[in-house]
Amino acid sequence: MDRSLEKETHWYGFARTQAIKDVFKDKISINTIIRNVETIKIKHAPSGTAVYSGLYVYSESVNLEEVKRKLKDEIFLDYIRLLGKDKRGQYYYVSSTDLQTYLNFAFRDRTANKNNQQGEVQDEQLWPKSVISN
Are the beta carbons of 50 and 20 closer than 8 angstroms? Predict the structure, then answer.
């Protein structure tokens, strides 16, 4: 499979261009291998910080502290377990797509309220793929 970025980027730089592009955004980072709530590592990455490992989330409409609370919850852990991406020893892998789907679910009341205020029904997502990256 030929991808356009492969012509311009060395293998070690691939998938890092988005992290560089988002370096001046306030964000939180989260690890991708999780066993229980205690192993969920969420770190604030202020503007000017590049995330080079794991996933990161930023938002202009949701407070990042709220996002942290949703991710440090047993409901998130149950969601990850249900996905069944089991690694040895009951550790689970979380992808950017998994995180995006969960955050859209966790904050679904925000999009429903916004749609009701505008008198429209839309399948809007607070967390498009571009705000969750690895």
Answer: yes
Joined together, the tokens standing for residue 34 give 């999780």
The candidate with the shortest Cα–Cα distance to 30, out of 11, 58, 62, is 58
Give which of 8, 25, 16, 32 is closest to 87, Cα–Cα.
32
| CA 73/CA 37 separation, integer angstroms | 7
Answer for the pair 124, 115: CB distance below 8 angstroms, yes or no.
yes
DSSP sequence for 56-78: EE--SSS-HHHHHHHHTSHHHHH
- Write the CA distances from 58 to 23, 51, 84, integer angstroms: 11, 12, 26
- The confidence score (pLDDT) of residue 1 equals 47
State residue 111's pLDDT score: 60
Higher pLDDT, 39 or 12: 39
Q: Decide if 51 contacts 45 (C-beta within 8 A).
A: yes
* Opening angle at CA 104, ends 98 and 106, nearest 5: 100
